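Bit of a strange request maybe. I'm writing a small parser for structure token strings and I need a real example to test against, not something I typed by hand. Could someone generate the tokens for this chain?
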Amino acid sequence: MSQYTYKPLGCDELLLNAWARSGSLSFQSEPENILVCLQSPDYNKWCRVLVTKQNELAATIFSSPVGLNIENNSVKAEAVGFVCVPPEHRGKRASVEIMREHLHEAHTDGAALSVLYSARARLYRGVGYETAGRRSVIQIPLRTLKARSMEGADRVNIREMSDDDHGKMKELYKDFASQINGYLDRGQWHWDYTLGGYAKKKYPGFIFEQSGTITGYMILTKGQSVGEKHGSEMGIHDIAFTDAPTARSMIRFLSGFSSTRSMATLGADTTHPLFDHIDELWYQVASTELWMIRILDIERAVSQRGYNPCLTGDVVVEISDPILKHNNTRWHISVADGKGTATQTDAPTQASMDISAFAAIFTGYSTATQTHNSGRLEASSDAINVLNGLFNAPTPVMADDF
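Reply from user aminoacidic:
Good idea to test on real output. This should exercise your parser:
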């Protein structure tokens, strides 16, 4: 029997204060700020704790429902953050225990994947996660920023964002994000965070529209100072658009800040559609983080993922999963007409790997060839070629940080 109990955070004042203390010791935030967030009614939907028999806090986790866009389809997922163990409980496998509990709960709730940014890859790999995508911070010098073309930009009107725009913005983002491999299909928490709900202030936002129809939006944040003569950075907190004239108008809009701001920063990747419209290649990657996924249910994940409609093929894969036993079997994976299925089978195995190795192949972050070369996939050359083809996708990137 486990020495811990896994449960919702609830309204226990001792646990609330213990979470705020533990989070402050592990992350750069004051206990008072964490406590304000934890006392929000929404947080109890997503906050879970691991407690000892004496009701002492042993670990925390935050998990909220999202979708992960893979090849134009949204795969149902849980986004994980705030995995934390108080110093006095470290070394007792509390972090492993709370992650195992999360995997079972998220699967029971219907998710196909769990996604997170790792502060300690060894911990998460130990429970079946694997690196599956990246998020880079791109620095864009504003004083050299120009669009390759300004055709159609004058048709775009710009105004300040209001609360009444949020519904249309969410619709626009959903369509924009579905076209970028790895982008989140945001749920409630991520939208509240994006719009400044948990910052206790409104982020400055701007609407770009043509003939009264919203064709883009941009939300900005204050950046870091880079020196008296060089002004400061400006963060592009969120951005989405539907067409080239809007993108061109956005570039002109950003360049207008060049007298007081030296740099704009955008969290995403240099493959972001905005960079297709920038004239000079002066932007550069300042930093890169890697995110990981855990496949909770192979049948759900394969069926919800998108595929190139030109692809047709099938392969029998044996998966080992010591935690989620329903995955621990032989699967017939078939793809046709842009759809995939995974069904249990007794047919001869053509490829075998553990659940974490399959995660990197699943998103397109790694190929079957790479996975085989690293010693994590056993398969015939024919099976490797089939897996390479079926799960081929643009390198997955993410804009959201959580």
